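Sample intake — DNA-binding response regulator
Collected from: Comamonas terrigena
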Amino acid sequence: MRILVVEDEPTLQTQLRDAIAAAGHTVETAADGSTARYLGQEETFDAVVLDLGLPVVDGLTVLRHWRACGRGMPVLILTARSAWHEKVMGMDAGADDYLAKPFHMEELLARLRALLRRLSPHSSAQWQCGSILLDTRQATVAVDGLPLVLTSHEFKILALLMQRVGEVLSRTELSEHLYPQDSERDSNTIEVFVGRLRKKLPAGSIETVRGLGYRLVPAPAESLP
């Protein structure tokens, strides 16, 4: 999934980015409220981790702006431990959860997983399509109970396809979820990763819809290993 991390303290931003990326997500970052406001309005994210004490534009103003624009992605706000009033204002502004600083990274990841489960069609940490089982908590994939070894890019593409089983996803959409905003996005490389996935998954799991993109479907019974 694609997560936006908005944090102006460089060390904490790096720690958040690395931990969330290690959990199998694609992470974009912003260090000030103006950049965050623009990204949240113009780009699509599955969730946002938003610090309220931001330069240029404060986090509450950013959050209110997103909600006023109809942006409904789940938002986990970060507040100072003593600033209880910020927690209340944050929830009133449309936040879905909050975490007080300092915090343990494991708790943040757990809260983020809970938000993604609660506000997505998947109520469980385990997603299934035919014989394919993806565990979002452990960032693992198995086919008929046998572990599958995937690269980080392959896992991210499969996770997005499994999140939206049966839907056609364009190469551009897959590319945007795979690469950070400041990377050179090349939708042609998606063909390479999809080709590798096809070799590891049951035959027929990933369909090509000519001119549109790819979709994940349960493999035909005769194609299962």
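Post-analysis note: The chain has two domains: 2-118, 126-223.
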